[in-house]
Amino acid sequence: MTDLSHLKADFPVLSNGVHFLDSGASSQKPISVLEAMDDFARTSYANVHRGAYKLSVAATDAYEAARERVASFIGASDSGEVIFTRGATTALNMVAFGWGLEHLGPGDRILTTEIEHHANLVPWQMVAKRTGATLDHVPMTDDFRLDLGAYDEKLGPDVRVVAVTGMSNVLGVMPPIRSISDRAHEIGARVVVDAAQLVPHSPVAVATLGADFVAFSSHKMLGPTGIGVLWGRMEALEEMEPFEGGGEMISDVTLQDATWAAIPHRFEAGTPPIIEAVGLHAAIDYLDSIGMEKVLEHDRELTGIALDRLGDVPGLNIQGPTTLEDRGGVISMTLDGVHAHDLATILDEEGVAVRSGHHCAKPLMRRLGVAATARASFYVYNTEEDVDALVGGLRRAGDLFGVGG
Amino acid sequence: MSLEDLYREVILDHYRSPRNKGHLDSPDFRAEGVNPLCGDEITIDLAFDGDQVSQVAISGQGCSISQSSASMMSEAIKGKTKGEIEDLTKRFRDMMSLDGEADIGLDPDRPGAVLGDLESLQGVRKYPVRIKCASLGWNVLLEALDGEPLT
User: Which residue among A72, A203, A295, B85 is the one 20 to 30 A from B109 at the CA level?
Assistant: First the structure.
């Protein structure tokens, strides 16, 4: 067992004993992240890329150091390929609108999947309506995996872009991005990966991942809210128009026209999330001090323990694979006769925080044939005791509602 | 406040065996509502005989609180006029503290004397995020009553 239980003390929110199993929605922040942001705001804060004075230079250095840190963390050879955004959702919208509006039209097909989060689905619906392109979806198999045979069949010369999750926020499955990308590239399509769940929980090297665009959020990886990342292969970024205009992103402006700054600044209009970039830098330092291989191993071990013990709870159904291969630490479940919201309330009374609802994946809920699920998601600070509290709470819910009795 | 106070047996009974479930063949009023945050759905059909509700049918899906509240509501409004239903709705909302009131004169020694089974839902008040579950059916009911007659 990968014992990371000593880490819990680094997270002030957890000191009251809450069994926090909702990191898939947003993670807690270690002291080092809070202190890095506090220290920066107290000593070095100013706007970036603007001032000739020392504070602004210091702030710019810190902001650009964060970009370098992100690049090294995800194995990007060029930090210019790292664009800071407000979060994964904004990053995905930047691609859908900035790339999609330029390159899609009638007769073109956008291929997404049945297991996407709304953030990698709804922007493409919006862009399809505006461009006349059509939307198509890779279905899920009955064992909760992407149907790769159907994917091959759906790939055709009219498919211009493939939008796929790196790890499902409902099922926990991790689709094989490398082979999905390779096949898409054979027909000249771009590949956009929603990595909001993948990057926080697994080693990722964009150089070998295969995708053209990768989006993720800081707040799910121990960092602050308000900042995320769009990584793009430089040749793909060059195909993209800015999604927002404003300060910072221009080269020259007249009353009638403007030319764009170089990449990545072209895509960072306005004052960026500067303090948050410093926080994200510290969060990456924290994760790297553990090691992402170990983070993945830890999540997976807890998932294995949980799947094993949940199997004994009467009336419980796992909405996702019960094997650990290509799977992260997210477990969605339903309990016969007990609605997910009731489950979440009962678990809360037991000190267990889980998410209940449709998880911003309503098409997937329909495919699963459920209105809602309760979801437990694990991260570095979770322990076997958290799993036991979850299992105990589920048993209590079953007792209260008379499941199986 | 314990979970047993929230999930009283009468609530679970209405959840497992919802009263007046289904649709009416020719309702005078119909409205449907959904809580977009959690996805709970309720559709209400009403038929009137004169100025009184003669038949009511409820369909939908959701948590025990939303579905039991609608089930109890369907029993409570039969035979009532629109004015009486609006008055009942106000008292229910007051019990839930939705409009700032909480004391509607419930008698702990005589449970059910004022609002019948609906009194069992007063425990929901202690769980603020769940109050919207209990009130969903009532919001749909008012929408149905204020809508255009279907016949």
Answer: B85
Inter-residue contact A360 to A116 (CB < 8 Å): no
Identify which of B4, B12, B133 has the shortest CB distance to residue A341: B133
Question: Locate tokens 């505006």: which residue?
Answer: A130
- CATH for B3-146 is 3.90.1010.10
Interface residues on B facing A, Cβ-Cβ cutoff 8 A: 3-4, 6-7, 12, 16, 37-40, 61-65, 127, 130, 133
Instruction: Report yes or no for ipTM above 0.90.
Output: no
Comparing C-alpha atoms, which of A116, A125, A94, A264 is closest to residue A195?
A: A116
Q: Which residue of B has its CA nearest to A337?
A: B16
Active site residues of A: 360
CATH of A33-288, one of 3.90.1010.10, 3.30.460.80, 3.40.640.10, 3.30.450.20: 3.40.640.10
Please give the CATH number for the structural domain made up of A291-401: 3.90.1150.10
B17 → chain A, closest CA residue:
A337
Coil, helix or strand for A73?
Answer: helix
**Domain boundaries defined on chain A:** 33-288, 291-401
Q: For B68-108, what is each residue's pLDDT tens digit?
A: 999 999 999 999 999 999 999 999 999 988 676 667 778 87
